[in-house]
Amino acid sequence: MDFLGLVLMLLVDTSASWVRMFIALGASVAISIFVGIYAATSPIGERIIIPVVDVLQTIPILAFFPFAIFVFVAVLPGYIGINAAVIFLIITSMIWNIIFGVYEAVKTIPNEFIELAGIYHFDFWSKLRRIYLPASMPRIVEQSILSWAIGLFYLVTSEIFSTGNASYKVTYGIGSALPGLAAQGIVPYITAIIVFVAFVIATRFLFFRPWENYATRYMRGSGAGKGRLDFPRYEKMALDWIGQKIPRNRAVFDREGFSVGAVRRTRRVQAAGSVAAGGGRLYPAIAVVIAFLAGYAIMSNSTLRGYEMTVLPALAASFARVWAAFVIMLAIAIPACIYLIFVAKRSSNYMVFFQIVASIPATILLPAIVLEVPHGEPVAFAVFILSGIWYVIFGIMASARTLQNSVFEVRKMFGVTGKNAWKSIYLKAILPGLITGSVTGIAAEWNASIVAEYYTSGGISGTTVISSVGTGIGKLLDTAIASGGLELMAIALLNLVVMIILIDTFVWKRYYKKIAKMYS
User: Fold this and answer.
1) Per-residue CA distances from 282 to 36, 50, 99, 183 (Å)
2) Reduced to 3 states, what is the DSSP secondary structure of residue 253?
3) With contact defined as beta carbons under 8 Å apart, do 454 and 474 qualify?
4) Coil, helix or strand for 448?
5) Which residues contact 122 (CB under 8 A, 6 or more apart)?
6) Which residues pair with 456 in a beta bridge?
């Protein structure tokens, strides 16, 4: 194939993948709006949906392969079923953080808005159009950009999927084409990456940038003359009401070094803590029930007991890799974000660049990484870091930028500089975003374990192993589903879910409580 033919093929393949991505993104946003609003406005919905979504976002995408095959491929004919299955798999990688974004936005709407809607007798659709959507749209756009990057990360895995002897692959798709191109030589591979990156940049500026501008106008109530709620105007009314309780000009500082004004500006950031803590007592109850049932089944069946003895060492090995990579991520993200936000004051200049780089998935760079980095553990650590670090960076920036002006005021008023500013002001200011970013970043690492710990020439269906660790839960899930070992895969997923629930309950929830107490 000549170079022009290669470029035309890549344009067709990438365009086909982008159509699937946009369909998946549209479906994810539509579902997230209603699920997130229900979780934020219904106590029962919150107790059920938030813990379930928190667990589902951590489960590797290949756990959904059997469902995609048994439902979509079995029900819908031929290529339609395969494309529907691929779109469903992409949705399972995109939807969770958008749900959290809508939930956080609606959860942090001041009660005055809801009371005002009651006075005017708004029905659900009026609240949706005039309150919930204006409040949620910026978070939807923000999370959609991140979801797009996540979907691209799993594009190869989504467009080539299998269980046992049943293997499925789309005819046109950059995800399905990339593994073969990497094997053909450096020129086709580099050309594919260039075309891919060009599509990523074009999508950022031609789609997400206008959408961001639209979301900003929508939130500012540009349609107020047409009967929509002018969201910031009513927000100002609510803040004025709060200001009667807490005088705006008080220079009162708590023992942590933050002004009352800074505390008031952190209220929305604090509410994000309910994402990890939203399960309440349901989290440990679920963990206990699952652990009891799984333990009983394992003890009474020798085959399952053998599976468990295989799963536990693999889970322990992955646990060590995930947290070691997390420490490296923190060592990079914390000083970089603090410098860009509070020292250099250039965070806005780098956000678009970060979003573009974050959208270039490690999966398409793996062949190049393998050439430069020894196989096995180094490759796994590289993929873990690349898959999780952007969550930490974006989490810190999203929350810390809301406190930027307050931090500058505190620093100027007290003349705090150098190491004291980093220790007493900057690190405390980034804590809410750091915890939220850490939760989602580690979840991304667990999800990426299927690629980091076992990478083949063609996704899960590949025959040539490019990089593999000795043992790990990601590798175990890969090999189990490739061989049709659904029982082993189910045992591995159960262990992973129980571990996630326990960590969320006894680690992250406690940190959120400490931060909320610090800001109270």
Assistant:
1) 18, 10, 19, 48
2) strand
3) yes
4) helix
5) 130, 131
6) 465
Query: Is there a contact between 459 and 425 (Cβ–Cβ < 8 Å)?
Result: no
Interior/surface letters 52-65, b for 16+ CB within 10 angstroms, e for the rest? ebbbbbbbbbbbbb
Bridge partners, residue 467, by sequence: 455
Give CATH for domain 3-248+261-519: 1.10.3720.10
Nearest to 432 by CA among 396, 390, 388: 396
**CA distances, 180 to each of 46, 86, 173, 364, 370 (Å):** 45, 19, 12, 12, 16
CA angle in degrees (0–180, nearest 5) for 41-27-21: 140
Whose tokens are 């008080």? That residue is 250
Q: Tell me the one-letter amino acid at 104.
A: E
Whole-prediction pTM? 0.76
> CA 267 to CA 520: how far, in whole Å?
9
Whether the predicted pLDDT of 477 surpasses 50: yes
Q: What percent of the chain has pLDDT over 90?
A: 18
Cα–Cα dist 31/102, whole Å: 11
Structure tokens belonging to residue 102: 């809508």
Nearest to 511 by CA among 330, 519, 267: 519
Over residues 68-106, the pLDDT tens digits come to 888 888 888 788 888 999 999 999 989 988 998 898 888
Place of tokens 């629930």: 501
292-332 confidence digits (pLDDT tens) = 776 777 777 778 788 888 999 999 999 999 999 999 999 99
Residue recorded with tokens 């931060």: 515
